[in-house]
Specification:
With 100 residues, the chain is of the alpha/beta class. It is 43% helix and 21% strand. Helix 2 packs parallel to helix 3.
Length: 100
């Protein structure tokens, strides 16, 4: 069994790119995909122990990846989070680092 990954991405092409990249690299098992902030928060609340890594988009059509990041940083058992976003400015990168 590989690293268990939750993908939080609402754009189909981006999600497919992430999934293809994980498959090519190998060693990853995608255990969930959530296209909205609410779905991601619910999934992580219910199944967080089933996940080692979250690949998180910041700009979602419904909600924000920042809200998911903020919720997860409050939890000591939170999985690792990698932000994957087209909205990558130095200020956004700094904010993400500050949020853990």
């Amino acid at each position: 069994m590989g690293i268990r990954v939750l993908v939080v991405e609402d754009v189909k092409a981006s999600k497919e790119l992430i999934l293809e990249s994980l498959q090519l690299v190998g060693g990853f098992d995608v255990v969930g995909n959530c296209p909205t902030e609410l779905q991601a928060q619910q999934w992580l609340h219910e199944k967080s122990p089933d996940c080692d890594l979250v690949i998180l988009d910041l700009m979602l059509r419904e909600g924000s990846g920042f809200a998911v990041l903020n919720q997860m940083r409050k939890r000591p058992d939170a999985p690792q989070i990698v932000v994957f976003s087209d909205f990558a400015t130095p200020a956004v990168a700094q904010k993400c680092r500050a949020m853990g």
